[in-house]
Amino acid sequence: MNIITFGTFDMFHIGHLNILERAKELGGTLTVGVSSDALNFSKKQRNPICDEIDRMRIVAALACVDHVFLEESLELKAEYIQKYKADYLVMGDDWQGRFDHLSHLCKVVYLPRTPAISTTMLIEIVKEIR
Ligand code: C2G
After folding, report:
1. Structure confidence by residue, pLDDT tens digits, 91-107
2. Has keyword Nucleotidyltransferase (predicted)?
3. Does ligand 1 come within 6 angstroms of the Cβ of 19?
């Protein structure tokens, strides 16, 4: 079985590890689309703290991850699902409902986010202690 998930994974933290491990626990090969720096800039008007090469290397080094690729556009999910022959698309429940239109291609699963941790929160904490 093939599982696909997507994310920025900037300043990699325990919430990121939890969702990747839980995705892998569905059973099968886990492929991760890591959002490109350009995609992030277009969404958030700022570059990630860690660049796309480093973010891909960190995710690829995890025991639960089998394959990593660069996600160049949010609109290409259907193409990526087909290319990697995904049976499951897994996303955190902050994306609840947003990918239901892909459910004719694969099962779409939203897993609960890990509470009380986010990249934005980490950036704010680091800013405060500087
Ligand atoms: N996540 C989580 N718990 C947290 C923080 C993040 O479960 N406390 C999950 C998110 O729900 C997401 C994944 O970790 O499924 C990656 O999160 P982000 O790096 O914030 O990625 P995001 O910007 O949501 O992805 O196509 C989607 C894009 O790649 C953007």
Report:
1. 999 999 999 999 999 99
2. yes
3. yes
